[in-house]
Design brief:
about 0% helix, about 50 residues
Length: about 50
């Protein structure tokens, strides 16, 4: 599953994770920390939608 930032379009792919931000490949969106912010525009996790 992929999730896209509603503000800037950055995409989180559960298969790829976000290793640069300390999120391992295979991490489900539900398991991403609640304080996660978009690495491009810094909005909160609740500003993402399923792709």
């Amino acid at each position: 599953m992929k999730y896209v930032c509603d503000v800037c379009g950055w995409e989180y792919d559960e298969e790829q994770g976000y290793p640069e931000g300390g999120i391992a490949p295979g991490t489900k969106w539900a398991d991403v920390p609640e304080d996660f912010q978009c690495p491009l525009c810094f909005v909160d996790k609740d500003q993402f939608s399923e792709a």
